[in-house]
C-alpha cells in the first residue's frame, strides 16, 4: 500500500474518459493508498511521472460542474496533505472564431488582460441575445507551473511537439483503447448561423456541406495538435450555441468552454488543460472525446517533465488555501436553492430555450436577414432624405385599408436596397418588422430561394412566440422539411402555424415582411412560386401580414405582380425635385465627412462643383455613392478625381457619368506603350471578374488567369470605388453594383473608354484558361478515395477543397458556359475532342464529387449545339455516346463518384465510345469485363422514385416535363432531359389512374380511384381545383387541344366535360354500356373518343355532347384510345391483345395489329403520326407503323406489366411506366435491345456453376431449369418437370448430378429433382434430404433414391438449419444437433475461403464488406454465383448475366445468394468447393441439401 503523505501533485478529471487517458500516461503505477481521510469517497489512481508522485482523482459518475470539482479537490487535499498544486486535465469546447483552433488541439489556461487564466459566467447567460455576465476568475497558477508552461512552450517552438507520437505509443501499448481513443479522420467546422438540423442523425448524414468553413490542412512545419494559451470560460452548462461562442470570443478573447474548473476558483492552486473535442456549437463531435482527452493528458505529462521534483517540495501545500472551499460550497449550495426557486417561476424561460434549440434545425440563408454582422456597414437613407416615400410606406403598413403587398420598383442604382434597409430598421424599432430577406445574386443562399421560407419563419418564430410549438411539431413530424419544395415549406412552416393562431391573443396586429431585390433570385421558377404563395397572404388575420417587396421592373416580376393585388411605387417616376433634394443632402453630408477625415478645407470642393455633382447624380444614388468612394480613397488625388468627374457633366448617360471618371483616372497618368500595357492588364482582370459566373478570390483569380497575385492587386488598386475588394485574399472580389457590369459590356461604351469589355473575346480567354486548368489538374480519383464505393456524402468538404481548389471547381462547372458565349465555338472542335478523349470521365468525376453531375447533361447538349459536328463526325459520335453514358450512370455517380470507372465502364456496351476511350481506367482487378450489349439499347434512362406500380406517364407538350401517376397515390413530375425529380404531388387518397397536361403546359389533370379529378399547376406544384363529379374511380382524363375543355371517364359509366379554368361541368355524357376505361380528344378538338369495358369505343361531339359513332370489333374490354396528330386515325388497345386502327370520320376499321401476348394496356401516337407505341402485360412495348400495321421494334426491358406509354412532343423520346415501379425512357428510332441472356419468362430465382465451369444452371418462376454455356451464352437444355417455382439449383462436386428444389408454398410441387445435366434426363424425384419443418421434426433423405431415412423429433420449431463444416452436426436455431447416430462419416473438407464476396441490397458487389461495383437497374440481382474468378448474376428481369473473367484480387471458391426481394420467400445458396448448401425459407421452415452426401451415397 502507498503512503498518502508522499504525493505532491494532484490531477483531477471530470469524466471517466479523461480518467482513462490520465492513467494511461503514468510512467509507473503505484499501489492504492493505505489510508484516506474520513468521508473521502473519491476514487484514486497513484503513480509517478519523471519522479513526481502523482495522485489522480475523478468526479463521481454522473456528476459534473463546479461544486463536484470543488468537493473532489477538498477531499483529495485532506487525504493527501502534501499536495502542492493541481492539474485540471480533460476535454472542452474550443472557440475557433479568432484563432485557428481545431479538434484535438490543446488549450492551456494562461493569464490574460489581468485575469488568471479562467473566468466564470452565470448559468443561463449563454442564451442568444443576452450579455455575458462574469461572476469570478481563477487566481494565477503557481509560479512553478507558469514557468514550466513557458519552458515547454519554448521547447515546442524549437523542436515541435511530439504529442501525436506519444499518444500513438500509448495506444500501441494498449490496443483495447484504439477504437475509442484513436484520432478520428473528420474535423468539421460550420458557419455560426448554421445549426445542426436533426439531433438524431450525424453531421455527415444531414448537414449541408456548403456551410462548412474551409481550412487548409496543416503543413508538416505546423504543430498538430497545436497548443493555445489564454482564457478558459467555465460555467454550469454545456455550450451548444455558436452565436454566443463567437460573441464571447469577440468580447473576451476566450479560447475554450468547460464546466468544472470554476469550482476551484481562488482556492486550489492549479492549471487547467483542455483537449478540444467540439466547437461549442450544435454540431457535437463525440467521436473526438477520446483523442482530445489523450492529447490533454499527453501535454500534462510533458509539462510535469519540465519541473524538477525538488522544486515542488519548496512550494506551499494546498491544504491551507482550501480552508475557504467550504464557504465556496455553501455559496454554491445557496445559489442552487435560489436557482430552483427561480426556475420554478420561470418554466416558460426554460421552455423557450428548448424551443430555440429545436428551431435551429431550420437552416437560414447567411446574411439575408436585416441587421446581420456581415451587412452592418451597408448604408441606410440619410435622415431627412426620402421623407415622402418613407411616410407612404409607413402609412400603408398601418392602414386598415392597405393592400397586403407594396411593390417598390426602380431601375438600377435608384436606391431600392438602401430604402429597404431603412424601412426595415424603422419597422424594427416600431416592433412591426416580422422578418426580412435580402436577395443578392452571387452570394450563396442569398442568390436563390432555397432557404427563403426557413429564414423567414425563424424570424417570425422569434417575433411571435405562440408560433413556436406549431413550427417545432412540423420539424419533428417532417424531418428534412427544409429540403422540401417551396410550396410545401410555406404550407407547413408558415401557413398552417399562422392559421393555428386564429383567435389567439398576440401582441401585434400587423407585421411587415421585407423582401429586397427579388429580381436577383436566380431561378425565375422560384420567383413564380413566391408569387403563387403571395396570393394567399390575405388569409392571415392574426396577425395580418404585409409584404414590402423591391425589385427592378423585369418581365418575370411584372408578370408575377399581375396575379396579386398590390400597391406599387415606381422610384424613377418620383418627381425630380424631390430626388434632387435627397441626393443633395446625401452628397453634402458625405463631403463634410470626407473633409473631416482627410483634413480638407471647409469649402472643398466648392459650392459650384457640389451643385454640379448633384445635377450629375440625379436620379441615380449609385452615382453619388460611387464618386464619394473615389474621394474617400487615400491612394487617389481627390482634385484630379473631381476634374475627371466634371468632364462628363454634359453626358446624357447616367452610367457614363458614374463610371467613366473612375476608369479614365486609371490611364490619365500614362501614355503610349505604358498606357496600352496598363489598359490590357486591367481590362483582362476586370473582364474576368465581371464575366465570372461565381466570384473568386484574388488567390483563385491568379491561378485561373495564370498571372501573379501582385499583378492582380496592382490592377485593382484604383478600383475600390466600384469593386468590393476584401483585405483577406481568400475572400471573393465582388461588384458593388451590377450596373458596372452592364456599363462595361454595353456596345455603346466601346468608343468611350479603352476598358470596354468584348464579351465574346473575354469568354474565349476564360474558356481557354478553364481548359488549361483542367488539363493540368484532372485525373482519376482526384481526391484519393479509398474505394470505388466511397459515397459522396462521406467525403469531407475540406478534402474536396484541398484536392479540387476553387479555380478548378470553377473551371469544371463553367468552361462550357464560356465556350458557348465566345465568338466561334466551332473553331475549338479539335481542342475539345482532345480534352474529352483524355479527361471526359475525370471531368464527370469532379462534377459528381461537387454534387452537380446533373449539370453534365445540359453541358453536353450545349456542346452538341455550339460545335455543330456533322452527323457521323468524331465529335458528334463522342457527344452522343457521352450523353448515353451519363443518362445511364448519373444516378450512381451522384452517390458514389468513382462508380463511373467501375459500374459505368464495366456495364457499358462493347462498342461504346466511352468504353473504348477509357478502358484504361477500369479497376485494376478487372481482367475482362462482362458480356454486354454491342451498342446502347433504346432505353435512355430508368427513373426510380415511386413506391408502387406506375399506372400512367405523359409528356408536357414542350417535352420539358414528364408526369407519372402511381398506385402509391402520388404524381411525380420529372425532367426528362436529366431524369431529375422536380415535384411530388400529393393529395389523392387512391391510386392515380390517369394524368394529362394542357397544351400550354400550365395545367396538369389527374384522375384517381378516390373518384376525384385534381388540377395542378405543374410549375409550382400547387393544387388549383379538386373536382368531385364522379361516383366511382376516374379512369382517364384528357384536355382538348385548345385547353378549354377537360374530359374525364369513370367506372360510373359517364364521361364529363369540364371547364378547367373554373371547374364547372359543361356536359355529362352517359355511356350506359360499361365502365369508361379511357378518353382522348382529337387534335382539332372536334371529336372525343371513349373506351368502354363492354368492348366498344364511342366517338362524341364535345361541343354538343352528342354521340357520333359506336365502334365494335374488339373481343376484350378496351383499355386505351389515342388520336393521331392529324386526327385522321384513332388507335385502341384491348385486353384481346390487339391494337385496332380506325377512321374516326367514318368509324371504319383500318388495321388490326397483332403481336402482343398479353392484354394491351396503353397506346400512343408519335406527334408526326408515323409511329404507334403499345404497352402490354407481356412486359413489352411494341412500336408499329400505323400506315401498314407492321411491327418496327419490340422493346423488352421491363420486369412487369407495361401500364402506360407516351411520346414526347418531338418524337425523340418514348416513356413507359410499369408495375415494376419504374419509368423507362427509350429512343424509339433505334429499335432492338440486346440482353445478355434471354429465355426465362419469370424471375430467375437461382444460378449455379458446375465445378468445371462449363455449365451454368438457372431456376425460374416459370417452373423450368435452363442449362447455359457460359462461354457463349447459348441455351444447352431446358429441363421441364416441376409444376411450381424452381427455388434453387445445385451441381454435385463431380458435375454428374444437378439438384433442383421447387417452391413448396404456392403450389403442390414440394419436390427435389435430380437431373443428369449431360443428357437433361430426370434421375429421381423425392423430398428434401435434410429438412426442418413446422411439425417440429428434422427429416433425413437419401437423394440417390428419394427414400426417407430418418425422422428426428425436436421439442420446438426448427427454423434455421445447415450442415456444420465439422460434421456430424446440424446447426439449427436451437443449437447444434448431433447426427452421428444416423451416419458414420461426414467429411466435406471445404477449401478455405480467402475473402468474402457479397451482395449488398441487391445492388452492390462488395469485396471483404467494402462496396466496389454497383449493379445498374437492369442487373439488379436476386442471386450471385462465383467460380474460378467468374461471376454470374441472376436478376429480377429474367436475365442471367455472366461477366466473364470478372477477376478480383483473390480467387473465389464459393458463391452466395442474398435474399430475393420479390416476395415472402427468402433464398440463400452457399457453395464451398465440394460441398453445396442450398437453403430456402418461408417462415418458419428451412430446407438444406449437401452434395457431399450425394457423392457418398448416403
From TrEMBL:
Q: Which PANTHER family match?
A: F-BOX AND WD REPEAT DOMAIN CONTAINING 7 (PTHR19848:SF8), WD40 REPEAT PROTEIN (PTHR19848)
Occurrences of domain NACHT (ranges): 404-553
Taxonomic lineage from the root? Eukaryota, Fungi, Dikarya, Ascomycota, Pezizomycotina
Q: Which PROSITE patterns match?
A: NACHT (PS50837), WD_REPEATS_2 (PS50082), WD_REPEATS_REGION (PS50294)
* WD repeats: from-to residues: 943-984, 985-1017, 1027-1068, 1069-1110, 1111-1152, 1153-1194, 1195-1236, 1237-1278, 1279-1325, 1330-1351
InterPro entries annotated for this entry? NACHT_NTPase (IPR007111), NPHP3-like_N (IPR056884), Nucleoside_phosphorylase_d (IPR000845), Nucleoside_phosphorylase_sf (IPR035994), P-loop_NTPase (IPR027417), PQQ_b-propeller_rpt (IPR018391), WD40/YVTN_repeat-like_dom_sf (IPR015943), WD40_PAC1 (IPR020472)
As one GO molecular function, the record gives: catalytic activity
Recorded protein name is Putative wd40 protein
Ordered alphabetically, the record's keywords are: Repeat, WD repeat
Source domain of life: Eukaryota
Gene Ontology biological-process entries: nucleoside metabolic process
Amino acid at each position: 500500500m502507498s503512503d498518502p503523505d508522499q504525493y505532491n501533485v494532484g490531477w483531477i478529471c471530470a469524466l471517466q474518459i479523461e480518467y482513462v487517458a490520465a492513467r494511461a500516461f503514468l510512467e509507473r503505477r503505484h499501489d492504492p493508498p493505505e489510508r484516506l481521510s474520513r468521508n473521502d469517497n473519491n476514487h484514486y489512481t497513484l503513480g509517478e511521472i519523471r519522479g513526481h508522485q502523482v495522485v489522480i482523482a475523478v468526479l463521481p459518475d454522473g456528476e459534473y460542474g463546479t461544486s463536484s470539482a470543488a468537493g473532489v479537490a477538498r477531499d483529495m487535499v485532506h487525504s493527501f496533505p502534501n499536495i502542492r498544486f493541481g492539474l485540471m486535465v480533460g476535454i472542452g469546447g474550443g472557440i475557433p472564431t479568432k484563432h485557428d483552433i481545431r479538434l484535438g488541439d490543446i488549450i492551456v489556461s494562461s493569464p490574460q488582460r489581468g485575469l488568471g487564466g479562467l473566468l466564470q459566467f452565470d448559468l443561463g447567460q449563454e442564451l442568444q441575445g443576452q450579455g455575458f455576465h462574469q461572476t469570478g476568475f481563477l487566481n494565477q497558477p503557481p509560479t512553478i507551473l507558469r514557468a514550466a508552461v513557458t519552458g515547454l512552450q519554448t521547447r515546442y517552438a524549437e523542436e515541435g511537439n511530439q504529442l501525436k507520437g506519444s499518444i500513438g505509443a500509448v495506444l500501441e501499448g494498449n490496443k483495447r483503447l484504439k477504437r475509442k481513443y484513436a484520432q478520428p479522420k473528420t474535423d468539421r467546422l460550420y458557419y455560426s448561423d448554421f445549426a445542426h438540423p436533426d439531433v438524431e442523425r450525424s453531421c455527415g448524414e444531414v448537414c449541408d456541406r456548403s456551410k462548412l468553413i474551409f481550412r487548409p490542412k496543416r503543413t508538416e512545419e505546423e504543430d498538430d495538435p497545436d497548443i493555445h494559451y489564454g482564457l478558459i470560460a467555465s460555467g454550469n452548462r454545456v455550450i451548444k450555441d455558436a452565436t454566443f461562442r463567437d460573441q464571447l470570443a469577440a468580447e473576451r478573447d476566450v479560447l475554450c468552454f468547460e464546466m468544472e474548473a470554476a469550482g476551484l476558483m481562488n482556492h486550489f492552486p492549479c492549471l487547467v488543460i483542455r483537449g478540444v473535442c467540439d466547437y461549442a456549437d450544435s454540431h457535437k463531435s463525440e467521436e473526438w472525446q477520446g483523442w482530445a482527452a489523450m492529447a490533454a493528458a499527453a501535454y500534462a505529462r510533458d509539462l510535469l517533465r519540465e519541473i524538477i521534483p525538488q522544486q515542488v517540495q519548496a512550494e506551499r501545500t494546498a491544504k491551507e488555501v482550501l480552508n475557504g472551499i467550504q464557504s465556496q460550497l455553501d455559496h454554491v449550495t445557496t445559489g442552487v436553492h435560489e436557482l430552483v426557486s427561480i426556475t420554478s417561476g420561470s418554466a416558460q424561460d426554460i421552455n423557450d430555450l428548448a424551443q430555440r434549440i429545436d428551431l435551429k434545425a431550420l437552416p437560414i440563408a447567411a446574411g439575408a436577414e436585416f441587421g446581420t454582422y456581415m451587412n452592418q456597414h451597408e448604408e441606410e437613407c440619410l435622415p431627412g432624405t426620402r421623407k415622402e416615400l418613407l411616410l407612404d410606406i409607413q402609412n400603408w403598413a398601418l392602414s386598415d385599408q392597405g393592400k397586403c403587398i407594396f411593390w417598390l420598383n426602380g431601375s438600377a442604382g435608384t436606391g431600392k436596397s438602401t430604402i429597404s434597409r431603412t424601412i426595415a430598421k424603422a419597422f424594427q424599432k416600431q416592433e412591426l418588422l416580422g422578418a426580412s430577406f435580402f436577395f443578392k445574386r452571387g452570394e450563396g443562399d442569398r442568390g436563390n430561394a432555397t432557404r427563403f421560407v426557413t429564414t423567414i419563419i425563424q424570424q417570425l418564430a422569434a417575433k411571435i412566440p405562440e408560433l413556436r410549438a406549431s413550427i417545432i411539431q412540423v420539424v419533428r413530424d417532417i424531418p428534412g422539411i427544409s429540403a422540401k419544395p417551396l410550396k410545401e415549406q410555406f404550407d407547413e412552416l408558415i401557413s398552417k402555424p399562422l392559421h393555428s393562431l386564429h383567435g389567439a391573443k398576440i401582441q401585434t396586429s400587423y407585421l411587415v415582411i421585407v423582401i429586397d431585390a427579388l429580381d436577383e433570385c436566380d431561378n425565375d421558377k422560384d420567383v413564380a412560386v413566391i408569387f403563387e404563395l403571395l396570393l394567399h397572404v390575405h388569409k392571415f388575420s392574426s396577425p395580418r401580414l404585409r409584404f414590402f417587396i423591391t425589385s427592378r421592373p423585369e418581365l418575370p416580376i411584372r408578370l408575377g405582380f399581375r396575379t396579386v393585388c398590390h400597391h406599387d411605387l415606381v422610384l424613377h417616376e418620383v418627381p425630380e425635385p424631390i430626388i434632387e433634394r435627397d441626393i443633395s443632402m446625401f452628397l453634402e453630408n458625405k463631403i463634410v465627412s470626407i473633409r473631416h477625415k482627410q483634413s480638407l478645407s471647409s469649402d472643398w470642393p466648392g459650392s459650384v462643383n457640389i451643385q454640379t455633382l448633384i445635377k450629375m447624380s440625379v436620379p441615380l444614388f449609385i452615382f453619388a455613392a460611387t464618386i464619394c468612394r473615389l474621394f474617400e480613397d487615400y491612394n487617389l488625388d481627390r482634385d484630379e478625381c473631381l476634374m475627371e468627374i466634371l468632364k462628363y457633366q454634359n453626358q446624357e448617360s447616367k452610367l457614363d457619368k458614374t463610371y467613366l471618371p473612375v476608369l479614365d483616372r486609371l490611364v490619365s497618368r500614362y501614355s503610349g506603350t505604358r498606357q496600352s500595357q496598363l489598359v490590357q492588364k486591367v481590362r483582362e482582370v476586370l473582364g474576368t471578374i465581371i464575366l465570372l459566373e461565381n466570384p473568386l478570390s484574388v488567390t483563385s483569380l491568379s491561378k485561373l488567369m495564370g498571372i501573379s497575385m501582385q499583378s492582380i492587386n496592382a490592377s485593382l488598386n484604383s478600383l475600390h470605388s466600384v469593386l468590393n475588394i476584401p483585405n483577406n485574399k481568400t475572400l471573393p472580389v465582388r461588384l458593388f453594383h451590377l450596373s458596372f457590369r452592364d456599363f462595361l459590356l454595353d456596345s455603346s461604351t466601346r468608343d468611350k473608354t479603352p476598358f470596354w469589355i468584348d464579351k465574346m473575346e473575354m469568354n474565349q480567354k476564360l474558356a481557354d484558361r478553364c481548359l488549361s486548368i483542367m488539363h493540368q489538374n484532372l485525373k482519376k480519383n482526384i481526391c484519393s478515395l479509398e474505394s470505388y464505393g466511397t459515397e459522396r456524402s462521406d467525403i469531407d468538404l475540406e478534402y474536396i477543397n484541398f484536392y479540387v481548389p476553387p479555380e478548378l471547381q470553377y473551371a469544371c462547372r463553367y468552361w462550357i458556359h464560356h465556350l458557348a458565349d465566345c465568338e466561334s465555338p466551332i473553331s475549338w472542335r479539335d481542342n475539345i475532342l482532345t480534352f474529352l478523349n483524355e479527361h471526359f470521365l475525370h471531368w464527370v468525376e469532379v462534377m459528381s464529387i461537387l454534387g452537380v453531375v446533373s449539370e453534365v447533361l445540359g453541358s453536353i447538349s450545349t456542346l452538341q449545339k455550339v460545335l455543330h459536328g456533322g452527323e457521323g463526325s468524331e465529335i458528334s459520335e463522342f457527344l452522343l455516346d457521352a450523353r448515353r453514358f451519363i443518362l445511364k450512370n448519373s444516378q450512381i455517380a451522384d452517390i458514389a463518384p468513382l462508380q463511373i470507372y467501375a459500374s459505368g465502364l464495366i456495364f457499358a456496351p462493347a462498342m461504346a465510345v466511352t468504353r473504348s476511350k477509357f478502358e484504361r481506367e477500369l479497376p485494376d482487378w478487372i481482367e475482362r469485363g462482362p458480356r454486354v450489349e454491342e451498342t446502347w439499347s433504346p432505353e435512355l434512362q430508368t427513373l426510380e422514385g415511386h413506391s408502387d406500380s406506375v399506372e400512367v406517364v405523359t409528356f408536357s407538350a414542350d417535352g420539358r416535363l414528364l408526369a407519372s401517376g402511381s398506385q402509391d397515390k402520388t404524381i411525380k413530375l420529372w425532367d426528362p432531359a436529366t431524369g431529375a425529380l422536380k415535384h411530388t404531388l400529393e393529395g389523392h387518397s387512391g391510386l392515380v389512374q390517369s394524368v394529362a397536361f394542357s397544351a400550354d403546359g400550365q395545367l396538369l389533370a389527374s384522375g384517381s380511384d378516390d373518384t376525384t379529378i385534381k388540377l395542378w399547376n405543374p410549375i409550382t406544384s400547387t393544387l388549383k381545383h379538386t373536382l368531385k363529379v364522379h361516383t366511382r374511380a376516374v379512369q382517364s382524363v384528357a384536355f382538348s387541344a385548345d385547353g378549354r375543355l377537360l374530359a374525364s371517364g369513370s367506372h360510373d359509366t359517364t364521361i364529363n366535360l369540364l371547364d378547367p379554368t373554373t371547374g364547372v361541368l359543361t356536359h355529362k355524357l352517359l355511356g350506359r354500356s360499361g365502365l369508361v376505361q379511357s378518353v382522348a380528344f382529337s387534335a382539332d378538338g372536334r371529336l372525343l373518343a371513349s373506351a368502354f369495358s363492354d368492348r366498344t369505343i364511342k366517338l362524341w361531339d364535345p361541343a354538343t355532347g352528342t354521340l357520333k359513332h359506336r365502334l365494335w370489333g374488339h373481343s376484350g374490354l378496351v383499355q386505351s384510345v389515342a388520336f393521331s396528330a392529324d386526327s385522321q386515325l384513332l388507335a385502341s388497345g384491348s385486353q384481346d391483345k390487339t391494337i385496332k386502327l380506325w377512321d374516326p370520320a367514318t368509324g371504319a376499321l383500318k388495321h388490326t395489329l397483332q403481336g402482343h401476348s398479353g392484354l394491351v394496356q396503353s397506346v400512343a401516337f408519335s406527334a408526326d403520326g408515323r409511329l404507334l407505341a403499345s404497352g402490354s402485360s407481356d412486359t413489352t412495348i411494341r412500336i408499329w407503323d400505323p400506315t401498314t400495321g407492321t411491327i418496327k421494334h419490340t422493346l423488352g426491358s421491363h420486369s412487369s406489366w407495361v401500364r402506360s406509354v407516351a411520346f414526347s412532343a418531338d418524337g425523340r423520346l418514348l416513356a413507359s411506366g410499369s408495375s415494376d415501379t419504374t419509368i423507362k425512357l427509350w429512343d424509339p428510332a433505334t429499335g432492338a435491345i440486346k440482353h445478355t441472356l434471354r429465355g426465362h419468362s419469370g424471375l430467375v430465382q437461382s444460378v449455379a456453376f458446375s465445378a468445371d465451369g462449363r455449365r451454368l444452371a438457372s431456376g425460374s418462376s416459370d417452373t423450368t431449369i435452363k442449362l447455359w454455356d457460359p462461354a457463349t451464352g447459348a441455351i444447352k437444355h431446358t429441363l421441364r418437370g416441376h409444376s411450381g417455382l424452381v427455388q434453387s439449383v445445385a451441381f454435385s462436386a463431380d458435375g454428374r448430378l444437378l439438384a433442383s428444389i421447387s417452391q413448396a408454398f404456392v403450389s403442390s410441387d414440394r419436390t427435389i429433382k435430380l437431373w443428369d445435366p449431360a443428357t437433361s434426363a430426370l434421375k429421381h424425384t423425392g423430398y428434401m434430404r435434410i429438412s426442418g419443418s413446422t411439425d417440429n421434426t428434422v427429416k433425413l433423405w437419401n437423394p440417390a433414391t428419394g427414400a426417407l431415412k430418418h425422422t428426428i423429433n425436436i421439442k420446438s420449431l426448427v427454423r434455421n438449419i445447415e450442415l456444420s463444416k465439422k460434421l456430424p452436426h446440424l446447426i439449427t436455431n436451437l443449437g447444434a444437433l448431433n447426427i452421428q447416430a444416423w451416419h458414420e462419416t461426414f467429411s466435406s473438407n471445404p477449401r478455405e475461403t480467402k475473402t468474402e464476396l457479397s451482395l449488398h441490397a441487391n445492388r452492390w458487389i462488395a469485396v471483404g464488406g467494402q462496396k466496389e461495383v454497383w449493379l445498374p437497374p437492369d442487373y439488379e440481382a436476386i442471386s450471385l454465383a462465383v467460380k474460378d474468378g467468374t461471376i454470374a448474376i441472376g436478376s429480377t428481369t429474367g436475365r442471367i448475366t455472366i461477366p466473364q473473367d470478372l477477376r478480383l484480387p483473390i480467387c473465389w471458391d464459393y458463391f452466395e445468394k442474398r435474399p430475393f426481394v420479390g416476395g415472402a420467400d427468402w433464398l440463400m445458396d452457399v457453395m464451398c468447393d465440394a460441398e453445396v448448401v442450398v437453403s430456402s425459407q418461408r417462415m418458419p421452415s428451412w430446407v438444406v441439401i449437401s452434395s457431399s452426401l450425394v457423392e457418398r451415397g448416403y
